[in-house]
């Protein structure tokens, strides 16, 4: 409690010193110029007051990044950069254009971003959408629609860490994954109406024979792209830079969450929200988990799973919101990537909030159907945090590579199957005209 008053006292001094500036400038200008400086100043003071806690939190964040995030995401980053550079994504995009355009009002290349996102998790989807936009594959409006539903959590985190590791039930993990991806698809369908009046860029050289057009585009991309050695070097460089950025944000927010907890800020917001949501009869531990998940997804989900709430559906709904919202830690990673393009950050944040609300709604709608299947058992991972920190790096790397190869082969199969269906439909249409 004393520490909270120390930080509050420093905050009061800063407010007094800047009071005159508030009256001389507009409020928005004041917030833009000074709020970030004020937050950083208070954070530095808190780190100085609590050096041991800050160092321990930074170590946990570093080990989380090194042992789980780096081997899990690096193959996806390098592989996706190579596939885009080699023209494979355009090949798949032309074949899946008849599916993606009517549903989500985006080009067929968007299927690659969505598949990579639901396979690998945050922030791979945002990275691929930004890359497609920078290569002018997407218009600004198409990129905005695509990133709204291509920023999702991976199934390993939802079903493994949250379902089995935290809720101690594989069935709950599967249920959470279903609600999460249904929420993402629904967001994509809703955002398909965003700027729908704006005409999409016409696809050049696409004929009725989608497979022939795709093969021609692949050959053209190979002629225009640099050598494989140059592409590989660029892919590794870009991927390593992105992974270092992701690691920095993980360590930073690990320290921030720990500081917030130590000074009692999370308890303060929990008390405020508990008073506001008093009619809903939610307990203190569940709301504290919700508040924590607003900042960091893993710690928040763990607190929600361990909450003393007697209603299992409430805990699952809050966890579904936390996973879909993803927390400011993930937002910072995604925003730092999409900010290099003309994708609007505000709309992206709104889409994540909408994703969280829809995922929670699907939990309440589908819970009566799945509730009889839920069985709580002993956790396979014993402790989710220990699991995340101590799982072998080589196992994560191997699994990540296998997933990436599997999803690419699956997408190629789906693309060729879609092209075959288009050929059959065209064949019967032509045959019908003859008669």
Automatic annotation (TrEMBL):
<feature type="transmembrane region" description="Helical">
    <location>
        <begin position="345"/>
        <end position="370"/>
    </location>
</feature>
<protein>
    <submittedName>
        <fullName>Sporulation integral membrane protein YlbJ</fullName>
    </submittedName>
</protein>
<feature type="transmembrane region" description="Helical">
    <location>
        <begin position="244"/>
        <end position="277"/>
    </location>
</feature>
<keyword id="KW-0812">Transmembrane</keyword>
<dbReference type="Pfam" id="PF07670">
    <property type="entry name" value="Gate"/>
</dbReference>
<feature type="transmembrane region" description="Helical">
    <location>
        <begin position="403"/>
        <end position="428"/>
    </location>
</feature>
<keyword id="KW-0472">Membrane</keyword>
<feature type="transmembrane region" description="Helical">
    <location>
        <begin position="30"/>
        <end position="51"/>
    </location>
</feature>
<dbReference type="InterPro" id="IPR011642">
    <property type="entry name" value="Gate_dom"/>
</dbReference>
<feature type="transmembrane region" description="Helical">
    <location>
        <begin position="146"/>
        <end position="166"/>
    </location>
</feature>
<feature type="transmembrane region" description="Helical">
    <location>
        <begin position="172"/>
        <end position="194"/>
    </location>
</feature>
<feature type="transmembrane region" description="Helical">
    <location>
        <begin position="6"/>
        <end position="23"/>
    </location>
</feature>
<keyword id="KW-1133">Transmembrane helix</keyword>
<dbReference type="InterPro" id="IPR014226">
    <property type="entry name" value="Spore_IM_YlbJ"/>
</dbReference>
<feature type="transmembrane region" description="Helical">
    <location>
        <begin position="57"/>
        <end position="77"/>
    </location>
</feature>
<feature type="domain" description="Nucleoside transporter/FeoB GTPase Gate">
    <location>
        <begin position="68"/>
        <end position="162"/>
    </location>
</feature>
<feature type="transmembrane region" description="Helical">
    <location>
        <begin position="316"/>
        <end position="338"/>
    </location>
</feature>
